[in-house]
Every structure is written in structure tokens, then in C-alpha cells.
Specification:
Chain A: This is Sulfate transport system permease protein CysT. The structure holds two protein chains of two kinds. By secondary structure, chain A is mainly alpha-helical. Chain A has 13 helices and no strands. Helix content of chain A is 78%, strand content 0%. Chain B is built from 16 helices and twelve strands. The chains are: A mainly alpha, B alpha/beta. At the A-B interface, helix 6 and helix 12 of A face helix 3 and helix 8 of B.
Chain lengths: 272, 339
């Protein structure tokens, strides 16, 4: 007798799944690669190895990784506060975390720029310390942190809620200090969720366009991100070159995300 | 999200997608004309459209509605190539319409000869906008490369307006250095060293300069300069440099689309309307330079008469200018040390 399934009709549900995935993800991505395939390997290489693409790639991947790392630390802290403490306004704070998801990124970009520009509220103070926030790679990092950090909170939070106090109590009764309990008991269980959050924030940051173009200053070789470079190719009606850069980006992103996933599986397995 | 919410929500989203709702050129017996334009013409076309709709009805041609779409000129051209159903395009550069003709074959290659004055019913130029009182004493192109003067201009790679800025600066430098290309490029290099932000479009650059108060000089379309003056009274001044460029934003009927929508006659009438006294007045009112000399004269106290170079005479046409200056490896890339 076949096993009972929750959703009836494996064939039908799988069919719909494949149909949707094809229409929304697979076919557009395939079309992208097909467009890029119009150029030969030497042209691919010439485009991808040009100093400008390399400079933009360094900034995009570097700032995204840095922003995702910072989001990971801050997100952990925010999730901790939201799960572990009762205080007035907690629900509101909890809702605020989601706002970067909802806000149009261009609005976020313009707002961040106004605040971090050399004459903005925060930018003015930073500028006096000799730190250029807007129109520099730091600005890119700020925008990417803004859009990435909710991912970490939202992946860590449910895991933290499920933890329960028994393990901590057991650790305490065995004489562990609070720091030891956190380090040896709680933290290892959060690591997989943290890595998932990092991955999501990182992936989101790599493709981010709207918020960054306002705060980065868009200077070639200095503060230009890869998505902007793609748009610039399109502005010159060079669809194929744009597709090549996009494909290159996708390949690198996929490789990175795949590696992170592997790492996560290992850690998950070890944690068990 | 819970599954039972998901399905109704998904359906609701589907009906909201533009492609899914039934839409024709003559929805509700009313002819719909789509004008795909670039950034700073929004206010001008709002007025033109209202007047044209009235005239079309008064002529007994029935009801008509004009839809406007605005964005960076290149981006707009691309969306028409990719299938946006524009009946007419009114863009910032002839080059952008050329691409629609060449790549999508939606209109003939000789489109620019179909209407008077290079198919540009109004012209404009590039001027300097400075802070009130002109604290940095900016008078001409030479002042833009002074140490400590910040210049705001959008990126010529992404903005049609910025290409006019760039060519105007180039034309001045070429004249100043007696045609010495190396020195001209040095000037451009120095100029872009003073540019702290390269916005992607003219409106974004306006926001940077006027709203965020970044920079000392803003290289701007003349009409955008007066708009800033209106929006931020008493905060800025307009400086006319010794020489600038004649910007000819062209218009054209996207013939294949218009024919498909049964809107050919309306589209042609719409563009011809731009050459009438009424529309020429609107152009002047919105700080574009009307082509009709007698109407231009009415606005001459504002729209100053300065020497203007042209792309055709001084740069050998758009195709050549694009290749020399803005394509990958062109002078703009060289100025940034990008090969």
C-alpha cells in the first residue's frame, strides 16, 4: 500500500511545482545564459577579466560578505533580545525588523544617502572624524547591511524560540558558567540558522541595485557595483555583454552559496 | 504564510499584473496613445496632452487619451525595443530612436527626416546651476576643474542628458586648447576628478544637487535648471557658460506599433501638434527653446542666446560621437582610466 501523503497526488503537485519553477526561475535563467552564449569564450574572458568588471566584482562580493557578516552578529543580538526578554514595545520592535523587506529599495537608498551624506545627520559627524560614509565603499556596505539584516533575525529567531530552557538548566546544574553555557550549549545549536541567515543576506546583497546606486556615488573603478555595470551595458544596448557579466555573477554566486550550503550540512551533522 | 491565504493572494496578484488585464488601443471606445518619453519632460507633456486631447475632440475625431511614461532615455528606448507599446517616442537623443529603428525595426531608418527641424520641435542646452550668490565664483567651463569645486553630473553611460553635458564640456575644451586632443582629454579627466557622485539619470542628479545639497555646480538641462529654481526658490542661480551645446531632443512615431493600434493618424497629429503655436508656447513656458523664432523671442529674457555647438557639425553625428566618447574604451572610459 502506498504511503499516505499530506498533499494528495504527488504527480499533480510535482507537475505544478516544476511548471512554476520553470516559468519563474529556470526558463529566464536559461534565456540569460543563451543570450550570453552568443559570444565566444575569448569574448567572455575579455569581458569578465576587464579591470573594471574585476574592480566592481571585488566591491560587490566584498561589501556583500562584510555586510552579511555584520548582519549576522547584529541579527543574532536582535533575535536574542526579541526572544529572551519581555519589554514594552517588543511587538513593535519585532515588526520594525521586517521593514527593510517592504520598503522600496530606492527609497531606502535615498534616505540612507540623505543621512550619511557629508552634510547629513550622521554623515556630518563621521565626516568630522575623517570618515566618508556616503559615496564610498562604506556607503555600499551600509546599504547592504540595511537590506540584509532582517534575513538573519528571521532565520535565527524561530530556532531560538524552540530551544527551551531545559538544556541551559542542565548545564547550570552541572556547574557551567553563563558564558560557558552560551558558548558550548546554545551557540552551536544556532550556528546552522546563523549560516542560513548569512547566506540569504549575502545572496540578497550581491544582487542589490536600487538602494546602492544612490549611496555609492557610482564612480568607475571605485564605487561601482556589478549590477550597475550590467545596467550600463544595457544602456549601450549591449545585451550580450550584460548577459555575460550577469552569467558570470550567477556562476560565482551559485558556487559560493553551494559551498556555504555544504559547510552548513557538515555543521548540522556535527551538531547532531 | 499559511496555504489558505496563499491561493487567493496569488490570484489577486495575477489580476494586478499589467499583462493579464485586457487592454487594447481602444479600451472603452476611447483611443489610447502612448508617449514614451525621458525624465525631465513630465510637466511639459502633461500640459501638451491636455491641450491635444481637447483639440482632437474639437476636430470631431472622437475621444482620445494620452498615456505618458518617463525614465532615463536609454532605458525607455530599451523598453520599446523589448515590446512596450509606444505609439510615439519623445526621447533625449536621436541615437536612442536610431536603435529602436535599427534593432527592432519599428520605424524606418530615415525617421528623423519625417518632421521639420530634425524631428526636434523644441531644443534645449546645458547650463550651470550654482548655489545662491555663486560662492565658488563659477563663470565658465574653466572654473569646473578648480581644486575644491565639486561638480554634479549624471553618468554619460546611463543618462542621455549627461551625454550633452559631456559633449558641451568637450567642445569648450577643444576650442580652448586649439584642438589638442591630449589636452582636451586632460581637461575632461580633471573635470571628472571633481565629480563626487555619478547619478544614473538627470532627475537623480537633480535630487543629489538640490535636495541633498551635494556639490557646487550642477551641469543641467536648461529646463531642469529653471525647474530647480522654481522648486527651491532663492537657493540656486543659473550661470550661462561662454559656449554650450544645442541639444535636440527628437520625437518620432513608432510606426509599426501605431499601425497595430489603429492610431497612426492620431500619433502623427500628436507630433505635428508639437509644432503649433500653442504647443510651442508650452515648450517655452517649461523652459524648452521653441523652434519658432517669434515664440522663442518671447522667452529670450530667460533663455539666453549663447553660442551653441551641434552634434552634427562639431561631432560628426550621434553615431560617431557615441563611438568616440561613450562606448566602452571611449574618451569617457579613458578619463576614468578604464580600458
Amino acid at each position: 500500500m502506498p504511503k499516505q501523503r499530506v498533499i494528495p497526488g504527488f504527480g499533480l503537485s510535482m507537475g505544478i511545482t516544476i511548471f512554476w519553477l520553470s516559468g519563474i526561475i529556470l526558463i529566464p535563467l536559461a534565456a540569460l545564459f543563451l543570450k550570453a552564449a552568443g559570444l565566444g569564450p575569448s569574448e567572455w574572458w575579455a569581458i569578465l577579466s576587464s579591470p573594471r568588471v574585476i574592480a566592481a566584482a571585488k566591491l560587490t562580493f566584498g561589501a556583500s560578505a562584510a555586510a552579511a557578516l555584520v548582519s549576522m552578529v547584529l541579527g543574532l543580538l536582535v533575535a536574542w533580545v526579541l526572544v529572551r526578554y519581555e519589554f514594552p514595545g517588543r511587538k513593535i520592535l519585532d515588526a520594525i525588523v521586517d521593514l527593510p523587506f517592504a520598503l522600496p529599495t530606492a527609497v531606502a537608498g535615498i534616505t540612507l544617502t540623505q543621512i550619511y551624506a557629508p552634510n547629513g545627520w550622521l554623515g556630518k559627524i563621521l565626516f568630522e572624524w575623517g570618515i566618508r560614509s556616503a559615496y564610498s565603499s562604506l556607503g555600499v556596505f551600509i546599504a547592504l547591511t540595511f537590506i540584509g539584516f532582517p534575513f538573519v533575525v528571521r532565520t535565527v529567531q524561530p530556532v531560538m524560540e524552540d530551544l527551551g530552557h531545559e538544556l541551559e538548566e542542565a548545564a547550570a546544574s552541572l556547574g557551567a558558567s553563563r558564558w560557558t553555557t552560551f558558548r558550548r550549549v546554545i551557540f552551536p545549536m544556532l550556528v546552522p540558522a546563523l549560516i542560513t541567515g548569512f547566506t540569504l543576506a549575502f545572496a540578497r546583497a550581491i544582487g542589490e541595485y536600487g538602494s546602492v546606486i544612490f549611496i555609492s556615488g557610482n564612480l568607475p573603478m571605485k564605487t561601482e557595483i556589478l549590477p550597475l555595470l550590467i545596467v550600463k551595458q544595457l544602456e549601450q544596448f549591449k545585451y550580450e555583454a550584460a548577459a555575460v557579466i550577469a552569467s558570470g555573477m550567477l556562476i560565482v554566486s551559485f558556487a559560493l552559496l553551494f559551498l556555504i550550503n555544504l559547510l552548513q550540512r557538515r555543521l548540522n551533522w556535527q551538531a547532531r | 504564510m499559511k496555504a489558505r491565504y496563499f491561493i487567493p493572494l496569488a490570484l489577486a496578484t495575477l489580476t494586478l499584473l499589467p499583462g493579464c488585464s485586457p487592454k487594447g488601443a481602444s479600451a472603452g471606445g476611447e483611443l489610447e496613445l502612448q508617449n514614451v518619453s525621458y525624465d525631465p519632460t513630465r510637466e511639459f507633456y502633461e500640459e501638451v496632452n491636455a491641450a491635444f486631447v481637447k483639440k482632437w475632440e474639437a476636430d470631431g475625431k472622437g475621444k482620445i487619451k494620452v498615456i505618458q511614461s518617463h525614465g532615463g532615455s536609454g532605458k525607455q528606448a530599451r523598453s520599446v525595443i523589448d515590446g512596450q507599446q509606444a505609439d510615439v517616442v519623445t526621447l533625449a537623443l536621436a541615437g536612442d530612436i536610431d536603435v529602436i529603428a535599427k534593432q527592432a525595426k519599428l520605424l524606418p531608418d530615415d525617421w528623423q527626416s519625417k518632421l521639420p527641424d530634425n524631428s526636434s520641435p523644441y531644443t534645449s542646452t546645458i547650463v550651470f546651476v550654482v548655489r545662491k550668490g555663486n560662492p565658488k565664483g563659477v563663470k565658465d567651463w574653466a572654473d569646473l576643474i578648480k581644486e575644491g569645486t565639486q561638480v554634479i553630473t549624471p553618468d554619460p553611460k546611463t543618462s542621455g542628458g549627461a551625454r550633452w553635458n559631456y559633449l558641451a564640456a568637450w567642445a569648450w575644451a577643444e576650442k580652448e586648447y586649439g584642438g589638442d586632443q591630449a589636452k582636451t582629454l586632460e581637461y575632461i579627466k580633471a573635470l571628472f576628478k571633481n565629480v563626487p557622485v555619478l547619478d544614473t539619470g538627470a532627475r537623480a542628479a537633480t535630487t543629489t544637487f538640490a535636495q541633498s545639497k551635494i556639490g557646487d555646480v550642477f551641469l543641467s538641462w536648461e529646463n531642469e535648471a529653471y525647474l530647480i529654481e522654481k522648486q527651491f526658490p532663492g537657493e540656486t542661480e543659473i550661470v550661462y557658460p561662454s559656449i554650450s551645446i544645442l541639444a535636440e531632443p527628437p520625437v518620432a512615431v513608432v510606426e509599426k506599433n501605431a499601425a497595430k493600434h489603429g492610431a497612426t493618424e492620431a500619433a502623427q497629429a500628436y507630433l505635428q501638434f508639437l509644432y503649433t503655436d500653442e504647443a510651442q508656447e508650452f515648450a517655452g513656458k517649461h523652459f524648452y527653446r521653441p523652434r519658432k523664432p517669434e515664440i522663442l523671442a518671447k522667452f529670450s529674457s530667460k533663455l539666453q542666446d549663447i553660442p551653441l555647438v551641434t552634434v552634427d557639425k562639431d561631432f560628426g553625428g550621434w553615431e560617431k560621437a557615441q563611438k568616440t566618447h561613450f562606448d566602452d574604451g571611449g574618451t569617457f572610459d579613458q578619463a576614468y582610466g578604464v580600458k
